[in-house]
Design a protein that fits this description.
120 residues, 84% helix
Length: 120
């Protein structure tokens, strides 16, 4: 989703994708801080809300800085969800199964994200 939004934005695609990387960096910082202070499920809900609200706003705000901020927040929400999923899975799945479980979780997530535009 983040790469799609970066390609929709006006301007240089390389710079837009640098913003995607910046969003993942920001998410690593704030999700780490929140995970140390809150329940992991609450951090996931906050990340999902940030992702959803920013994604919807992306299409309604005027072009320019507002869309760049929405892109940054959308990517940050997505990366925050992934960071939280790793913690949730590690705490709830036995250690001998965590590797295969994470591969299944991420594979299904990527497949669903790839197929979602076709179903929409």
């Amino acid at each position: 989703m983040g790469f799609y939004l970066a390609s929709v934005l006006d301007g240089n695609l390389f710079v837009n994708l640098m913003l995607v990387g910046g969003g993942e960096t920001v998410a690593g910082i704030w999700s780490g801080i929140l995970l140390s202070r809150m329940k992991d499920t609450n951090v996931f809900i906050i990340s999902a809300l940030l992702n959803g609200i920013s994604y919807v706003l992306f299409f309604f705000v005027p072009s320019g800085l507002a869309q760049y901020v929405c892109l940054l927040l959308t990517v940050s929400g997505i990366a925050g969800k992934f960071n939280t999923i790793y913690v949730l899975a590690e705490l709830r799945i036995p250690p001998e199964n965590i590797g295969s479980a994470l591969v299944i979780i991420i594979t299904v997530a990527v497949m669903a994200a790839g197929l979602a535009p076709y179903f929409a």
